[in-house]
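Hey,

The postdoc asked me to send both predictions to you directly instead of through the lab channel. I've kept everything plain text so nothing gets mangled by the mail client. Protein one:
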Amino acid sequence: VNGTALDVRFGSSNTVSDGGSPPFPEVLSLAKDAGSETLSTLLLNAGSGGAGDYRVGVTAFPNPIPELYPTTYVACREPLAYYGGKEFVVVKQAQTTVAEDGTIERNIPEGCAPLRLLPQCAELNDLPAGSQSSHDLAADVRCYKDVNSIDWSKYSPA
């Protein structure tokens, strides 16, 4: 993730990747879906900030499970106009709300599956000369050595 130690601790960091050649910054962001108060689409775009919600990071203490925040990500089949209406699985974020009676509403759309996006550890490569990217504010966060090897049955009720 990208940010100061305080950014990481208090959920103000963002998730940046190096893309292209020479490397340039790409950032995860959430774009509100038209006609929805609670649903946003997760995007990876060139740049490191600007318009949009770039507060996509990895949870820190006291959350015991490192995962991408904000939580309640979902996978939804959706036709994409750019590809002639062909359906793809698109990752979205469903904003949790609280009803007037105090009930927590996850707002997961019908036909979508809930996801937990877990960070897998990776080494940060050195940047070649001429890169537009910078690792000056790259922050270490908790991550999993091998997400695929986790036996989730150990952590769920029988």
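Protein two:
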Amino acid sequence: MSEKVIECKNLNKFYGKGLNSFHALKDINFSVNRGEFIAIIGPSGSGKSTMMNILGALDTASSGDYFLNNKN
């Protein structure tokens, strides 16, 4: 069985509040097993840098769960 090193469950990131809020990431679900390589690709403004900032612990998600080596 593969060991998950990264797991995201229903990850969301909002900037701003109320009518001025921007939904940068919406309900992201994925996992990365030990030994796997992944690429995060998409057009400009699709949330790639936001996702990398959360995965690198430089920012936090607004909601959802992010596990790194099974630690939330």
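Summary for protein two, as requested: The beta strands are 4-15, 22-33, 63-68.

Thanks,
C.
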